[in-house]
Fold:
Amino acid sequence: MCNIWQLKPQEFLSIDDYAKVPSSLKDINVSGGEAFMRSDVVDIVKVIHARCNHPRIVVSTNGFRTTQIVSAMEELRRTIPNIGIGVSLDGIGDTHNRIRGVKYAWENAMATLKQLRERGFTNIRIGFTAMNENIGEMRQVYDLACELGVQFTTAVAQNSDIYFSTQVNRDVAPDTLHDALGYVMKAELQSYHPKRWLRAYFESGTLVFNQEKKRILDCRAGIDFFYLAPEGIVYPCLTIPSPWGPQGNSFETVWESGDAARVRREIAGCEQCWMICTARSELKKNLPRALGWIAREKVRSHFSH
Structure:
């Protein structure tokens, strides 16, 4: 679902550049490619953490480089006790290896998850990207997350020229997605953790978007959040290929530029994607609506078979 690995290396931001991100950031995902391929990833995360006054930070990884990942996370934990990590799993065993196209991808990812748990990390999640090729194993991956005592997050594969570097991802068969995601949502609603209830609400939005191409919450790309590409270009989100510039200026100059204002007008009401990074801010603003849905669905989940 993602062709980032095919992109040619470019000039990347330095640690000094990352020290200039806006200090108001509250939720940050450090992603890739593979974030742990950068030898200075620990320093990058630390400087962002200091700059933004202790934001919520999650580092995404494929889990291939177990020793390097665990070592880096242990170093980060000394400064950032609640540092989070998300390990991508596309299925169980050979399914994951086939989709990743890498021998022992499953074994390495599992080793990373288990070693992180053994070392006492608690803010761990498995990230599952749903496709027609793996939707039949969503239940098993969710059960694995529960067995390991880690969080489970999921989204349907999206298209993007600027991030995923592909436009060939297809919708998942609605009935199949409803069956798999319904299993996850019911289990999340029956848990005792409000965060998991909210994930079930987000997942209800996944069902709607996959079938109707409509969002259950508005998108405020370029207003509440943005995507900073590794070469320093600012975009309103992961999927909208409208760069703000000119490159090389301060973030504040780019954020307040005419380009940014124009793009915000053009994308108002956008329904191009449904991912947690583009829904989180509105979810927080619409908690009463989400809680109403949760209350109704929790009752139904306890009486449904």
Q: What stands out?
A: The longest strand covers residues 124-130. The longest helix spans residues 194-212. The mean pLDDT is 94. The chain has twelve helices and seven strands.
